[in-house]
Amino acid sequence: MSDSSTNKDLAITKEERDAQERVVTSEEILNDSDIDVDELNSLFGITEIIIDKDVKKIAVIADIHSNMVAFEEVLKDMKNREYDLVLNLGDLVGYYTEPEQAVTESRKISDITILGNHDFALIEDEKLLYTTMQEASQLAIDHNKKLVSEDNKKYLRTLPMKIKLITKLATLLLVHGDPITIYGYVYGPTPELFEKSIKNALNAVDTDYLLVGHSHIQGEYFDFNTGRIFVNPGAIGQPRDGDARAAYCIIDLENKTNEMIRVPYDISKVKAQLARESLPIVLGDRLEFGK
Length: 291
Hints:
By secondary structure, this protein is an alpha/beta fold. It is 37% helix and 17% strand. Strands 1-5-6-7-9-8 form a six-stranded mixed beta sheet, with helices on one face. Strands 4-3-2-10-11 form a five-stranded mixed beta sheet.
């Protein structure tokens, strides 16, 4: 740790901030690649899980990103709600200062968890994803790696990238980013392009539901042509949809409805933690605006 002047030096320019906020969609990845959709899909195996017990409501969480201040408030909120299963769409670590606690608490409550790109960057030896990240993300991964126990690193290494969940009422595909390129974003800079990206993702799956995280944008979409449902629970640790509150959701499989939930938390505590650990202040600033 070092003093606040060092932390201040890690402030970034507007151009760097814009780069931090840029997302790479699956469409861009496919356009820039020689590999086709079927070949790309074949690279990532699907773990199939069958749930025999009755599951009517599912709590879905994602993108905790080592933000225990937000996660603790979400955990309190979850205690007051009804659900039969908890699904975690990945990125337990990264960005903020309490990765060990985030992984440990997630393991306690999550029935099924997917590997996120920040989780992968923390455990991979080759640093393939790490080298594609912006500097602020890399600094946070370097910080987090020192704090996560060997037991929790071992746990992260066991997490699959794709899960097909089969329940009595519906089938669900769980991925962190998108169902084709895994870590591409289901996203578009305009509502029209966003809808097109969601439809492309839904057309790539054969399940009733597609559940994704990664974009940190809470939302749902029902495709009347296919009958498939897209759900992003939003981010607990770093919302980017203009709402600074932590996000998660509860899916009602029986009634085919989704409850999108927001939970307030003390962002100033997270910013103080970043300052103490000399992590980039931009990571705290963006929490204020939910971007």
